Amino acid sequence: MKLKSTYDDYFLRAVKRFDSDILGQRTKAFEMFKELEKVGHIGSIKYLGKCYYDGRGCEKNLDKAREYYLMSIAFGYYNANPGPTSYEMLRNIDDEIIGAFEIAEEIYKSGDRSELYTKSAYVGYVNTIVYGREKGLAWQRLGDMYYDGLYVDKKKEWAVYCYRRAFTTGGMDYYEEGSNSCKLGKCLFYGEGIDKSIVLAKYFLNWAYYSFWDWEDDEQALLAESLLSSIGTLTEDYLIDGDRLMEEDDIIDDTASEWLYERPQYIKTTAKGT
Fold it and tell me: Can you tell me the distance from the alpha carbon of 238 to that of 58, in angstroms, rounded to the nearest whole number?
């Protein structure tokens, strides 16, 4: 399995084994889905959630099921087969936690990084995405957990997509919008968890810069300003497909809009810091 053109065929073979009534076939399906995850094939994500939820081909693990169902939402595959949507499956895993967001924020702000507390924070943020109203900030906090490897394995490529969902979901105050945009811009500037893109980096760093207008001495505000200064004015070398007919801001905005709402088939798994 060396070429991307073979991944979809491999995925379909895994699905066929997944649907088998033979235990050995299910185990092989799980192993194949894990291989596909390593190469960034997103179609396997919800199937892995189903495997862990049912104990199909692996040991039943609701913590892992929760993680994979959540990420299928982040990647836009929550309605994909098999079975119910990822939102519905997450409701099966956790009953609604009253005040889940407040509980998670208290843990987040306490600085306690023990596994018991970080797990409680993770569950609280996931429940907020399923049931609550502070969905945008919950996505950002989950991005931080994947970026730093708190409770979950460090996966900066997953962090990027959580930050992306935070941006498109919105509902944050100016400071948190700036913080989320700065994190996205930094990842795109350095190529952390995603291919480096100066065009996209400038879009999100600009957003952060203006969101931090009242916090000009904040550490993240200074970082956004510093990275923007190093980018400077984009030259035609950065223009998409050599198009010189549009103004720079139009190209940046159009490129960012396309990326934000794109449903990816693969995620970056070999970028710096992953």
Answer: 46
Sign of the dihedral through C-alpha 270, 66, 108, 224 = positive
Sole residue written with tokens 């952060």: 208
Alpha-helical (H) ranges within 55-195 are 62-74, 86-93, 100-110, 115-131, 135-148, 156-169, 174-190
Q: What letter would DSSP give residue 82?
A: S
Q: What confidence tier does 246 reach under pLDDT thresholds 50, 70, 90?
A: very low
Cβ atoms 163, 139 nearer than 8 A: yes
In 163-182, which positions are buried (b, 16+ CB within 10 angstroms) versus exposed (e)? bbbbbebeebeeebbbbbbb
In the block, tokens 């948190």 appear at: 176
Q: What type of residue sits at position 62? A: L
Residue whose pair of structure tokens reads 């990326």 in the numeric block:
259
Distance (Å, rounded) from C-alpha 191 to C-alpha 197?
7
Please report how many Cα atoms fall inside a 13 Å half-sphere around the Cα of residue 156, on the Cβ side: 19
> What is the pTM assigned to this prediction?
0.90
d(CA 195, CA 191): 5
Both tokens of 214, joined, read 């009242």
